[in-house]
Amino acid sequence: MRASETWDDDLAAAMGASAFTARGAVDMTDPAFIAAARARGPVPESVEGVEISETTVPASDGHGVTVRVYRPTSPAPQRPAYVLFHGGGWSFGSLETEHPRCLELTRRCGAVGVSVDFRMAPDVPAETILDDCWSALRWTAAREDVDPARVVVTGSSAGGALALSMAQLGRDRGDVVPALALALYPNTDDREHPSRVAPAFPVITGEQVAQVVRNVRQGRADVPAHVFPNRTADLTGLCPTFLVVAGNDPLRDEALEHARRLVDADVPVELHLLPGVPHAFDGIAPQAQVTRTAYDLMCAAFDRAVR
User: Fold this and answer.
1) Catalytic position from the list 94, 115, 157, 165
2) Which of 54, 101, 185, 305 is the Cys-Cys partner for 180 at CB 3.0 to 4.6 Å?
3) Where in the numbering of this chain does the Alpha/beta hydrolase fold-3 domain appear (predicted)?
């Protein structure tokens, strides 16, 4: 599939004004860049209808994984929930980058939200990243105010990959099986795909994707398949999956291949390919019609999975 020459009209102005589009010159493995992109702010104040707090969840090695909890203030004995993993190539990103999306999901879906500040590469091996996320998922499912049968895993970019990874671990381990894996423009593979070498994609380049993959692999040949969900040989028996794929994104083709493999494995899949849309489009232009449409589709899929 070739790169689209057409851009979504609603994104055109935002693309010119956004700092996202300047990342093509950035070395995403540079320590100074990573430190700035991991910066944390104070816990946001609660807003009307949503109580916001932070706590720590014990990982298997005893480390306290910080999570930010978004809880609807209206009374309910148990609610559906989502566990959200931030993007940033498994190497940067923070709770702050996902705050608007969490507010949107909690308000629109009436769900308890848990946003996970997992440890990142290259500080820890890939297994530790997976364990932090899995620990947060299990903790969420065990909450008294959460129905464990109605827990959704979600994220964008590398966070979308982690959501797909948690679906695979849930199938294999059996104690927490997500109701839905909901991934936006996920990074599913460490192998090269045609869209990674397509010219003129903004926001991230194929070389930057290769940089973050190397950062995760750390020179190893034995990184667990679940880190890169498309590496997992057996995709049968996974939970339903919802995918939003950006048409002008180096990650496009690997996400489409993963969707095809899920369909071949008889996994229920809802796929939306958005032509003329770049990676991280919702962060670039949160008010654009394409973003609103994507979020409408996402919330509708969430509601169907948990009702």
Assistant:
1) 157
2) 305
3) 83-281
